[in-house]
Amino acid sequence: MPIIVKKRSTVSPDRLKRELDKLYTQYNHRRYVHPDPLEFLFSYKEIRDREIAGLIASALAYGRVAQILKSVARVLDRMTPSPYLFLKNSDYEFMYKEFKDFRHRFADGHNLATLLFGIKNIINRFGSLYQCFFNGLSEKDENIVRAMRFFSHQLAGPENKPGHLVARPEKGSACKRMNLFLRWMVRKDRVDPGGWDNIPPSKLIIPLDTHMHKIGLALNFTQRKQANMTAALEITSSFKRMIPDDPVRYDFVLTRFGIRNDMDMDCLIDKTR
Questions:
Q1: Contacts of 196 (CB under 8 A, 6+ apart)
Q2: Alpha-carbon distance 14 to 134, whole Å?
Q3: Is 247:196 a contact under the CB 8 Å cutoff?
Q4: Among positive and negative, which fits the CA dihedral 164, 129, 155, 187?
Q5: Each residue of 225-263: pLDDT tens digit?
Q6: CA 39, 212, 257, 273 torsion: positive or negative?
Q7: CA 41, CA 214: separation in Å to the nearest integer?
């Protein structure tokens, strides 16, 4: 269900935070996760499996939600019981053979197998996806953009054979799916399982898609017409003024506005003026 916002208004930050905290308390529970590819991560207790499953689930998180869940399930089912061990014991030829008939909208078996082989190469080189990303991050960095560039380059290589399955921040994209993956892995609460403990949530960027862009416009967090990285950073900065240590805290509950019939964005705005 698309998010339709009928009005744009200047909101009171204090009132907005109170209302968002109410929504967070009410809806930030695992029982409200379905249908969301995040649910696949709950099956993995080992961080080495969870980070792989999370990257796969987020990479395929575009298009119709039913097809997303079907595609992610198909991939992870083939990697049962451990995505980590599957990659450890597989070469590219085996991966491609397993997924040669795979298709998810624009992605085919070659794109997927190349993504999986890129994950394997990172693990062989750095020890884990987490350590690779962490190596690209500096304490001086205001956000994770530089680390995302490093991570995506290590994952896709100069030829970018996984195609659009790997976001490229240097192109100005909002990198919604990668930021979604990072939210899952860095934050830890009743919804986000976490595991990447040494990356500060304060550096995260809002996962910006068309729905969140409409919310950002409605709240006057951005005036930009395109849902690009600049808009994502502007919206994140507005949330950061409310919660400096956790600017993407409300991402899950705000995206429920595009799913649940009992949530109305205009009603939220009316309460915050």
A1: 51, 130, 133, 134, 182, 185, 186
A2: 34
A3: no
A4: positive
A5: 999 999 999 999 999 999 999 999 999 999 988 777 777
A6: positive
A7: 28
